[in-house]
Each structure stands twice: as C-alpha cells, then as structure tokens.
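Tutorial handout. Part one gives the primary structure; part two gives the three-dimensional structure as tokens.
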Amino acid sequence: MRKLTFILFVVFVFTYAGHSQEAQIAKYKSMFTVNFIRYIGWPEEATKGNFVIGVLKDKTVAANLKKLTLGKKFGYQQIIIKEFKNINEVTDCQILFVSKLINYSNKNSEIIKQKLGNKNSLIVTNSEGSTKKGAMINFVIRDNKLKFEISSTNASKFGLKFSSSLTSLSNAIIK
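Part two.
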C-alpha cells in the first residue's frame, strides 16, 4: 500500500510540475508576444482602428494576453484579443499567435495567410520549422530555455520590419 501511495504521489508531482512549467512557458510567450508590438515597423494601415492580437487554439495564452493588455493601448489603438478555435475562424489581425496544437504545415500556413489577407500581420508560431513555412516569429525550446527565431524575409512579405533590437534578441535569424 505504501508503495502504491508513493507511486501515485510521484506521478502527481511530475504531472503538476509539467503542467506548472507549461503554464509558465505560456505566460512568457504571452509577455513576449505583447512586447513584439514595439519592435515591429508597422505599415500605416495597420495602425488604424483597434490593434488586434488573434490567438489560434490556445486558451492559456489568450487568457494571459487578456490580463496583460487590459486597458492598454498601442499608440492610439486599443489592444483587443480575439480567440479562434480553428483555422477557418481566423480573421484580420495585426498579430496571430498560432498554438502548437495546430500543425503549421504548408497547407495550413497558406490557409492562415489567406485568412489574414496576406498583409500587415505578424504570424507567431510554436512548431519547429515554421519560419520555413511563412511564420515570422517561432517560439522554440533550446537547452531547456524558451527562445524564438525570426524571419525578416517572411515579415517583409507582409510589409513588416523588425527592429535591430528584436533581431539581436532572437535565437536564430533566418534570412
């Protein structure tokens, strides 16, 4: 009986620790995503109306972003967080955060880009190789640390420019 109790305790601790670590990573991804706003050269048309951050299939990141942006503005723009349950719901937004639950394949990346109107949107992903499929910023875990890689080429296709401050912070610059 003691052995069974000990095993259940160990499983619970590791499950809780894993969940806690995932929640912490989601918090950092949210903070980075909000801060990316300042380090992007946005075209004039992207600075009109509300500043919309879309979150595709990640309730934790969406909730964190809502807390971080509550009552905040980017310039004169009110920051709004929109949640999308699937790719078909995606609409215009200045930033789209794509969950790691979404397979950012060539097919899905093309659908997402079309839904965003192929312009003025920053696509932030969470899966290895996403910058090769059109993402501008991709979160990765390297050496047990959260890092991000960027693609200035993909950003420029959408009319966006990264500041030198952002490029110096990234893990890998893909050109």
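Part three, for discussion. The domain at 2-174 is CATH 3.40.50 (Rossmann fold). Helices lie at 2-36, 59-69, 106-115, 152-157, 164-169.
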